[in-house]
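In response to reviewer comment 3 from the previous cycle, which asked for concrete evidence that the modeling workflow produces usable outputs, we include below a single protein chain processed end to end. The sequence was submitted unchanged, and the resulting structure tokens are shown without manual editing.
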Amino acid sequence: MSELDGIFGPAEDGPMVVGVSLQPVGHIFNYLSGGIDLKRGDRVVVETDAGACFATVTTEPCPPSVALDLTQLRPVLRIANDSDLRIEEENRYREQQARRLCVQGILQRGLEMKLVNVGLTYDGRKAVFYFVAEKRVDFRNLVRDLANALRLRVEMQQIGARDETKATGGIGPCGRELCCSSWLRDFEAVTVKMAREQGLALNPSRLAGMCGRLKCCLRYEYATYVELKRGLPAVGKRVESVKGNGKVLRQNILKQTVLIQVDEEGGGVIEATMEDIVEKRAQ
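The workflow returned the following structure tokens.
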């Protein structure tokens, strides 16, 4: 038997990789299954840089991709047993206590910060307090008092507005649960250009999500709009069409048509399809 079998699983089966999330709807990390029969939704214990932590299986074991460096992956320690689940329940209770103490400390000191979440490591020796603040906050005295009261290591970690909304959740203007708190695991850049390409009015109140930043959903159809727009003549270009020649006033990307201001006197505005246009970019 190979000495790697304990980590990679049986040699004849080859190594299997499983995806786990340390937080609800959080980033997915790759781990070696270590020969453990894992299913999606299983609670497991894994090793992280901060020590052992609870995690949830999000993708079941599968063969690794060629580009994945298996030497950089840690194995899943075990499926969470009854003892682990009791520890997790105790940690949730201690997190609530830590949250109350921290909120009291913030109010007593008048600190301009807002506590969002608290997380304890598996061994209960360290607590991480996640907060948001508009400017730099001196929380050294707060950390000292929390460490003395809770008798554990305390770390304060500032997060952004998107992460705050992801943690708190809510209902979006579409009437559904927020993408970030229901299924969107990682944030990607969202720009005003994406709204322009989709022909949306640049109204901050309509484009901003509950976090106050541009809505993540502006990304979803952006690539499709860019692709569809490539075949249309640009606004301001002169074109020739079977319905009349003139200048493009507006594009209807989804219908794949353009509105043309006809040159002839009294010609008005016509809507032309791509089949109607004889020369898209005539000058």
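Residues 1-12 have pLDDT under 50 and may be disordered. We consider this sufficient to address the reviewer's concern, and the full set will be provided in the supplementary archive.
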